[in-house]
């Protein structure tokens, strides 16, 4: 019998990073390897239940708790994940914590060295540490390879951005792509340090499937000489190993019951991920756009309450009587909290997703065969919009008027309700354009589903990845 590999995972403290990485860890455990997830207690709470279920099913997966270095950074007790941040200062401290945690990780790895260490790419210090401890490292990148190619092309072609106004043509990529706005200089600095994190890694793992960005993977592998491991959509892959139905919560019941009363493909789902906070003015315009579109919707609102704000002022960001109207007309539902996104997307009544284009949101929408209306929030999300609309055509663009590297500040330029209404109607109105886009989304969903079945590309990649890691340890087989 083969000796299982001992693999340590280190997810970053943000839902968009942690969710796919924990799914990846669970997938590898389901193939008989021994997994330890290094995390903090506040983060563990967000996924402990699924790990307990996997353990009960006989998988070797456990958590090793680290102490979140929040006190020394002045963070309040319990703030251990970007999902709790509403401003750049708190977010900056959580990013600092990702550096401060290094000594704890190093001492765990020294005490009981794993065969392989899989950190989030954001832990850039893991490169030197792994070299020092002589532990093979393979990074997980929570964004797409398409995004990385865009970043590389932008870096290689500064001349493409000389003009003061867009659209900007991006040269050198497999498709002729344009960006509506210029990436800010801060973005280049941020991505530079991230891409350095890939050096020395045994390739890079992404939550995607080969059929989604094949030409870009070739481009990337040729450029960097590094192997890409597409092991996704991870949410679809874990569904195959989870035997029990998802946990039933009140909010799940409420919105799924509401959706049950709606016609197939008739509801637009709106969510801007776990981080983006739109300005009150933008929320107001969005509400007007949704109302004017005439379509039904479920809107997940994560809103920053201003300091000192009185309770009665709270709802002023909505047009007068908006909530009463949508309730009276049974046309809309607001979720002011954490929504069961994958469940909503997979409901047959959901026919469109107005998204901030976070990479997980994109992959989840593809997995559910739901076409998108794109309104990028920050960073790589501007690139994902291009993959959705210009490369594959399974979405309609609202676009953006300015580049933002922060999800918290709200953009200065507000996109009008009319602009949003127009994009929503292009997709959701019955007619040729919407049908064509929907068909493309279903075709890509079909490819995603095939990728995760036995013999499919992601299923095979997972096997190949484990074989590759085992080959690093000839004595263990
Ligand atoms: N998510 C969710 N409910 C919410 C908001 C987000 O389940 O109310 C999940 C979503 O399904 C995705 C992750 O949180 O898996 C967000 O990751 P993404 O890359 O889409 O965006 P980010 O939050 O990193 O901007």
From TrEMBL:
Its EC number is 2.4.1.-. Gene3D superfamilies: Glycogen Phosphorylase B. It comes from Vigna mungo. It comes from the Eukaryota. Belongs to the UDP-glycosyltransferase family. The keyword Glycosyltransferase applies. GO terms for molecular function: UDP-glucosyltransferase activity. The keyword Glycosyltransferase applies. Pfam families: UDPGT. The lineage of its organism: Eukaryota, Viridiplantae, Streptophyta, Embryophyta, Tracheophyta. Keywords: Glycosyltransferase, Transferase. This is Glycosyltransferase. The gene is UFGlyT.
């Amino acid at each position: 019998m083969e000796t299982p590999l001992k693999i340590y995972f280190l997810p970053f403290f943000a839902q968009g990073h942690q969710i796919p990485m924990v799914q990846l860890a669970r997938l590898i455990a389901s193939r008989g390897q021994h997994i330890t997830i290094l995390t903090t207690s506040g983060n563990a709470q967000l996924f402990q239940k699924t790990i307990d279920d996997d353990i009960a099913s006989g998988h070797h997966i456990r958590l090793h708790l680290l102490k979140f270095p929040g006190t020394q950074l002045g963070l309040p007790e319990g703030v251990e994940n970007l999902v709790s941040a509403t401003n750049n200062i708190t977010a900056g401290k959580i990013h600092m914590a990702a550096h401060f945690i290094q000594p704890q990780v190093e001492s765990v790895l020294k005490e009981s060295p794993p065969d392989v260490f899989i950190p989030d790419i954001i832990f850039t210090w893991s490169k030197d540490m792994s070299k020092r401890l002589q532990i093979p490292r393979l990074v997980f990148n929570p964004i797409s390879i398409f995004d990385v190619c865009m970043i590389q092309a932008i870096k290689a072609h500064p001349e493409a951005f000389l003009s003061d106004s867009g659209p900007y043509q991006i040269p050198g990529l497999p498709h002729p792509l344009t960006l509506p706005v210029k990436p800010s200089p801060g973005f280049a600095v941020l991505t530079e340090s991230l891409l350095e994190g890939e050096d020395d890694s045994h390739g890079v793992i992404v939550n995607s499937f080969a059929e989604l960005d094949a030409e870009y993977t070739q481009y990337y592998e040729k450029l960097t000489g590094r192997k890409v491991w597409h092991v996704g959509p991870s949410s679809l892959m874990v569904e195959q190993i989870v035997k029990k139905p998802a946990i039933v919560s009140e909010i799940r019941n409420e919105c799924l019951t509401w959706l049950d009363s709606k016609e197939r493909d008739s509801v637009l789902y709106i969510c801007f991920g776990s981080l983006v906070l739109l300005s009150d003015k933008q929320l107001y315009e969005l509400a007007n756009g949704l109302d004017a579109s005439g379509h039904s919707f479920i809107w997940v609102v994560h809103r920053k309450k201003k300091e000192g704000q009185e309770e009665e002022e709270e709802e002023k960001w909505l047009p007068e009587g908006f909530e009463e109207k949508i309730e009276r007309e049974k046309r809309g539902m607001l979720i002011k909290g954490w929504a069961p996104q994958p469940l909503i997307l997979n409901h047959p009544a959901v026919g469109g997703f107005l998204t901030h284009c976070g990479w997980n949101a994109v992959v989840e929408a593809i997995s559910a065969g739901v076409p998108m209306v794109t309104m990028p929030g920050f960073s790589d999300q501007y690139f994902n919009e291009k993959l959705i609309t210009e490369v594959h055509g399974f979405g309609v663009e609202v676009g953006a008027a300015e580049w933002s590297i922060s999800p918290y500040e709200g953009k200065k330029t507000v996109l009008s309700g009319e602009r949003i209404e127009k994009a929503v109607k292009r997709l959701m109105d019955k007619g040729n354009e919407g049908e064509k886009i929907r068909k493309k989304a279903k075709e890509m969903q079909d490819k995603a589903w095939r990728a995760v079945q036995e013999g499919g590309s992601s299923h095979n990649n997972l096997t190949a990845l484990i074989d590759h890691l085992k080959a690093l340890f000839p004595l263990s087989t």
